[in-house]
Amino acid sequence: MPQAPPTHVFRWDLDKTYLRTDFDSFRDLVKSAFEKAIDKRAVPGAPALLRALKQAGGATHRVCIISGSPEQMRAVLAAKLKIDGVEFDELVLKDNLGNLMRGRFRALRAQVPYKLPALLASRVALMKAGGEAANETLFGDDAESDALIYSLYADLTAGRLTRRDMIEILDAAEAYDDQRETTLALCQELSAGARDRDVVQRILIHLDRRSPTGGFDRFGGRLVPIFNYFQAALLLHSDRLLAAADVIGVAREMLASGEYTLAQLANSLQDLLRRGHLRRDVASRLALEAQEIVTAHRKEWADLPSTEEIAWSFATRVRALGEQEIPPAPPSKPLDYPKLIQEERRK
Amino acid sequence: MFRIAVDAMGGDRAPDEVVRGAADASLASKNVELILVGDAQRLGRLLAEHRHDAEVLSIQHASEVVAMDAKPAEALAAKPDASITVAAKLVAGGEADALVSAGNTGAGVLACSQHFKKIAGVRRAALAAVYPTEMRRGEKDDPFSLILDVGATLDVTPDDLVSFALMGAAYASRISKNPRPRVALLSNGSEAGKGPKEIVEAHQLLLRHTGLNFIGNVEGVDIPRGTADVVVCGGFVGNIVVKMLEGVSETILGLARYAYKEKLLWRAALGMLSGGINRLKALTDWQEYGGAPLLGFDKPFIKAHGRSGARAVANAIRVTHKALESGLVGEIQRGVAEFHQRRDAAA
Fold first, then answer.
1. pLDDT at residue number A270
2. CA–CA separation, A170 vs A337, rounded Å?
3. What is the model's pTM?
4. Which of A172, B107, B317, B330 could be disulfide-bonded to B25 (CB atoms 3.0-4.6 Å)?
């Protein structure tokens, strides 16, 4: 039987997005490089979310991981994902050793000339495999330039950037000649098969550093900074990519980690509402559905707080915002990428 | 986990600095949940500008504000949805455990007396202030003493003064980690018979019916020396004392500024002393010690200085957390109950 074409692609970064990685010091970097798969820790809720996303669509949902971790860590990272029960379709890692051998030191740190062609190559391959209709959701973090790269990729796939724009952007990103040629060639292939539409539906940026959410406003409402994966699950539920039971699954994993309380999850819901990324009616509908599901599974899910407690916590936080109209998230505006790249470099 | 309601609209620099202080405090501890009370949209916009942890922070909408110069009783009656009232109600209703405000002091005290319960055996509440002294105390070599009441109760009885002494001693032992604080009554002479009738009677009660480390009466000159760790007086006297201490320190700074401008030699001398002056300034910086506790209610209320900036607000939240964690209210309840038992037994 022929396989159904992919309908949705979930692209994930690893460090600080899926994995809890500390590489703020050289010591941390070395420790992270030599850590065993069993010792690596995932961000609470991320494994449950990834599992649910894959299960929700079966073969039509693709999980593609593009990370700045070195190629030499492939076995460890794949083993960690296996331990967490996460299935993936693609795992792209950075050829840091190759760059080092060729004396390309700029490439060791640069993100745009590495991640952008990797994303484009994956998209082009998907289109060739009959997946041109697939939409995408991208997951990154605030430690590197994920917000910028993902927005750039979203605008490229939507056909909003010209070859001339791309040359300027790659100049600003200080891409090596071969990186520039590859990227421009991929852009060409992409535009040949693209229909002018937004394939990237959402960009979710995990606030590992707790960067101010307002700093991401310039990327428009398509990009949502998230404090945790319960917020991601809520947003994906409102995008009709996850069922209410999956949202509960993510919440359960977070509560079971011992790092989260019911109140913290309720605060996370309120945060999305007041930033205008989640509508009240969606939250209310989910609350009703969740209540029914929790009641039905009460015996299996003895670890969860009582239904009344859950309902009270969430309803209180929603009510607390009063009757004021919550402004919707701002629409995406054209971005000055060369300027943004220079700003990122100055940081 | 403790929950602290923060009156985000109260204070000369509110809501901007209060929100910034709360945002900082949210990053400092995962064990405290903060509820910012005030205009939800405005607070949300301000929060977005600062690094914060939305998992431990929520907003409770309140549409009205009591101005710093408003008459407390009139303002609270006219504005039922004032942020201080809503915050006090949250605490009274069990949705929060303690209250912090940098707003109108009178309105804060009145809101607490309208909504909080008094501790059994305490007739009137006392507002306590910390002030820098020559002598140090406690396990942290604390350079601050406590004086109470500084304005909550103008007419006091001997019983009120005993309650204040017990509450002040509980605060010193729990918050300043001073296991056996020296407690004194403020009078116009050190002899037991000196002072107004209520002081003389309170002296006898403290000696006979409490287990406090009561060192007798102290005079005004003993306050900055730090002869006592807890100085007890009525609100009328206490308010004059703290305002005078503040006035004296402002005058000294003013004189130093004058000297700096007036003569080159004085400027040079002040320059040489600047290291010491800065240390002294840091030591006596009111923004560091986090505000004045209102004692006598079943829930803690910390009144931050009206001019509080983000640092002072964050410190007020830190002290409030300490009050909750250390079981301050329980310690006061025990002390007051013990006094009444001893006195009844003696009768």
1. 95
2. 10
3. 0.91
4. B317
